[in-house]
Amino acid sequence: MNAVLAPSADRADSEVILKLSNVESAYGPIKAIRGVSLQVRRGEIVTVLGSNGAGKTTILKTISGIIDPRKGTVEFKGENITAMDPSLIVARGLVHVPEGREVFPLLSVHDNLLMGAYTRRDRDAVARDIEMVFGYFPILKERERQEAGLLSGGQQQMLAISRALMAAPELMLLDEPSLGLSPKLTKEIFEIVVRINRERGTTMLLVEQNANMALNAADHGYVLENGRIVMEDTCERLREKEDIKEFYLGMKEAGARGERRWKKKKTWR
Ligand SMILES: Nc1ncnc2c1ncn2[C@@H]1O[C@H](COP(=O)(O)OP(=O)(O)OP(=O)(O)O)[C@@H](O)[C@H]1O
Ligand SMILES: [Mg+2]
Fold first, then answer.
1. If you measure from the C-alpha of residue 13 to the centroid of ligand 1, how many angstroms do you get, rounded to a whole number?
2. Which of 23, 24, 25, 27 to mutate to test the pocket of ligand 1 (most atoms within 8 A of CB)?
3. Does residue 255 have a pLDDT over 50?
4. Does a structural domain hold residue 63?
């Protein structure tokens, strides 16, 4: 996908929009992330890959203020937003599309979209943005007056992304948009995520188990293992790494290599 769509600006030249420094978050005694540092630059799609329980959702919840970290800092557009109230973080242009596509099931598609725009006062622009998301996901226009709970899983994922777009975000956090979707629908959703990034300049931080899709869509990637970042590189280079091919892309190659410790524990689906 990167080859056919205009690549993002040279990484070193663009502004760091999100910066995590040594972030640790825990649930009671369970340390879910242990000293995570990562950066997202404006205009990029960055992915964090990791298997079940690696800490992906915890990273996103810590960024969006749902969980307060025990240590470390989260900066957005140069401002320290660590443990800030989630609604204040949304108002600054950072929205979170949670795991499991949480829509309001009893509200119509249209009203779900309006909920996404609740912090905005620019009514005309909100109406234009509803048309904009229908442009990306035409099926939602057909179902505009239907209860969101009656949509299929894939359609609910589309609605969850659309509702986040209605907040006119500068940075979107996407938690496993491929979860439970067919390969075809996953591909469609990822293509639209890339289009939104390229056409609207919305920066994306995408956490995924589906390394194949994520590495094709994103510019830069981090690999998370047991709450720690164990690898970071451009997605182009990550796609070529033997470790990644073997455990994340399912292309096992023969040959003994030294550092197998973190790979062996993996239970990849
Ligand atoms: N509410 C919670 N209470 C206690 N422990 C939790 C809670 N949520 C997550 N954990 C633990 O924190 C660790 C990280 O979980 P997290 O949900 O961030 O992983 P994940 O990478 O998103 O996994 P998945 O791919 O399954 O969604 C896991 O060991 C998990 O069991
Ligand atoms: Mg998760």
1. 34
2. 27
3. no
4. yes
